[in-house]
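Subject: for your reference before the review

Hello V.,

The reviewers asked for a structural picture of the protein, and I figured it would be easier to keep everything in one thread rather than splitting it across files. Below is the amino acid sequence we used in the manuscript, unchanged from the supplementary table.
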Amino acid sequence: MGFSARRNFKRPSCILRINNMVFFNVRLVPLLFLIFQLSAVFSPSEGKKQNQFDLNDHLLDHSRYNPDIIPICSQDDRVTVKIGMALRDIVEVNEKLQMVRVKVWVRLKWKDCMLQWDPLLFQNQTELVVPYSKIWIPDITLYEGVTDEENMPGMRDYRASISSTGNVMYIFPTILTITCRISVTYFPFDHQVCKLKLGSWIYSGKYIDLEKLSYTMDTTNFLTHNEWDVVDTAAVRHNIFYSCCPDPYPDISFHVHLKRKPIFYVITIIFPCSLINVLTFMGFVLPPFSGEKISLQITVLLSTTVFLLLVQDKLPSSYEGFPFLAVYFAVSMGLVCISCVFSAIVMFLYFRLPEEHKIPWLLRYIFLDKLRVILCVKGGEILNDEKVVQITDIRSLENGQSLPQHKCVEIHRGRKSRKDSSLTSSKNGEIPEYDEKSKKQQQAEVNKSHITDEWELFANILDRFFMLIYLCLTIANSVVFFLIMDNYNGQDLPFE
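And here is what came back from the structure prediction:
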């Protein structure tokens, strides 16, 4: 052999030298491959993590960046903040307190000239997420907020996203409680417009300019509400001068047009009231001698009052516009009161004493002669003295012989039959004698029956006439109410 190999068994080596040539130990190759794979897996992430720490320290170094100071890099520069909002849900609409609670996603975007970097220096990292307290964030305030705690709850609990160009995006969800002027004139077919006004509280337009992200609110993720529908939304920018400060203060106002779903109130309030009005109509059908006409209508009046109280508890007290629904109930109550007066007049005339009063000729002509035919009131034939027949030939039932003329009697063909207590029957079945005194008494009874029938008929005609008046007024009240409600679409509300 022309060469010699030296092996050291006490200290193993992975390298063999043969004639100045280097060879690896084959048994250690798998171990080297494993080490290579592990280094390939862990080294990039560790480097990236270390890179994030380096970028965070570089941007948020207190020697170069202060989160409490507005980032203005030049003398004439100002920060432009773009504001958007997504409507998520309508939590509550309180008509009596004039407050609305909504769940929204607020979107803020601006450019911070102090938060820019070169991605090539940080392994092409173009985005960094930091907590709220680490960077400057504009003091956007809800002007109509009425909460006792935070103006926009949860605003400080989320993180902002920063790009390498200095663009900052901060999105956070919150529940806003605002004051909203609730117009209940057309309740429950009403429309409402509520405004969410956002702007900086301390920085004027000299330092911050506000722009809207879009012309409307984002409603793609809106949850369907059981009482309200969102008809339309709008975002409007204003630039307002206040008396306290010389510079203008810009703001972005988000308008939300809401429409109430009336089906619940139609079933629980309007429909029962209509049925109660029908019951009032049935009070005119009852005959006067039943004694229940006024009692039924007073019960209906109390029921209508209960429904009016229900509406009063639901709606706020407003001097600008009274609800048409309350007007509808008030008119219905007035009609029920009028029906009670009508029934009292009818019952008074029905039980009028015929010995003391007679129907005037004009009322007799209008009601008994004309309206009776028009209103189709059926009644007994009106009696007078010409319809009294004198019977001169009366025969006995026993032998068929004619009785003397002085035993003849005048008989009245009236609706009511009366028995004269002065007349007595003979034992042999003959008609008793009928003297002049009994004749005059019977004639008075006949005239009394004739007058009583006229007053009853006059009361029935008047009751039918009052029923038609009440029916026309009730139909007119309902038709006017529903026409007003059906033609309303909220066009009178201020919506920019």
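For the response letter, the relevant points are probably these. The chain is about 35% helix and 20% strand. Helices lie at 29-59, 263-283, 293-314, 324-350, 361-374, 436-486.

Happy to draft the paragraph if you're swamped.

O.
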